[in-house]
Design brief:
Layout (H helix, E strand, L loop, with lengths): L5 E6 L4 E8 L3 E9 L5 H5 L7 E5 L3 E2 L18 E3 L2 E2 L12 H7 L3 E4 L3 H11 L2 E6 L5 H10 L9 H4 L5 E2 L9 E7 L4 H8 L3 E7 L4 H5 L5 E4 L10 H10 L5 E4 L1 H9 L4 E17 L4 E13 L8 E7 L5 E6 L4 E4 L14 H15 L1
Parallel strand pairs: 3-4, 4-6, 5-7, 6-8, 11-12, 11-13, 13-14, 14-19
Antiparallel strand pairs: 1-2, 1-9, 2-8, 3-9, 10-12, 15-16, 15-17, 17-18, 18-19
Amino acid sequence: MQRRSEAILALEDGALFRGRAFGARGERCGEVVFTTGMTGYQEVLTDPSYHGQIVVMTYPHIGNYGVNNDDAESARPWVSGFIVREASPVVSNWRATGDLESYLIENKISALTEIDTRALVRHIRTRGAMRGIISSDDLDPETLIHKSRASREMSGADLARDVTCANAYEWNYQLPITNYHIVAYDFGIKHNILRMLAARGCRVTIVPATTRAEDVLALKPDGIFLSNGPGDPAAVTYAIDATKKFLGRVPVFGICLGHQILGLALGAKTYKLKFGHRGGNQPVKHLPSGRVEITTHNHGFAVDADSLPADVEITHINLNDQCVEGLRHKNLPAFSVQYHPEAAPGPHDANYLFDEFIRMMNNAKAN
């Protein structure tokens, strides 16, 4: 196999990691983060919550089962860049319709391979997630470090506007629609969330992130869903304001960024985690039952537990760092979780949360 050309990852703190070019050639900036999933790289690439980030896969061998037309979680990949220890030159899977590198090239995503991802992840865990740049063109370290420091910061960034849909649309999953109409805010929504709602008999209308509360309520939904998405939740002020207006009027369920937006709408604050939670093996404790779930995560911000008002209870905590993973209003039909119960990719321990949303809508109808 022909040897790949040289490429560099330069971090804003001056750290350099040399490897080989993979995917599209060129330069890409982003916040450098890592995910611990052993599989699911196509779902990672197409998760809009990774918009603006260069993603490091901690599992060393990536690409061996190729890519296909079914595992994408949105219309296209959103990562700014991709880093793997070893990019598999061989694709072996009956579902594969293509190989990873061709997929990256087609979608103009620069990537880096033959790099010590263990050393890079240890650096991020020690120093925190930070801006970086992948380059296979300009290989001058000082120039690249300067470019990384000049790139956009994640704190204060409203990225939901970048990934949301342009117009409202209906999700067509070809299942019998029965009982519920849900309006889902698209802050970067994943397809498997929509599949999970449709599988429970829901007709789902997806609306752009900036849709006014009055326009959503005019659709007469049985429930409102606040989706996952990228960026700083405190910067998504229009969604926070909209959520305040329909709280108490319609049942609300939020995931990831939607969880943070609900927390902010209820009066809490959010903060940036040192290196975030990303992967499919995060232990979360469900406080009412004491049950521990293994869950899928992708977030760099969290709700501040000490800032929650008295009428909001914490329902889930992360057992690694005790951060808030779920909350519920004590009097209003509204709850949320920080992690991803749709599990694409990941374990299915938290599927019950979609059933909980159905029960909440049933109770609202009964009352």
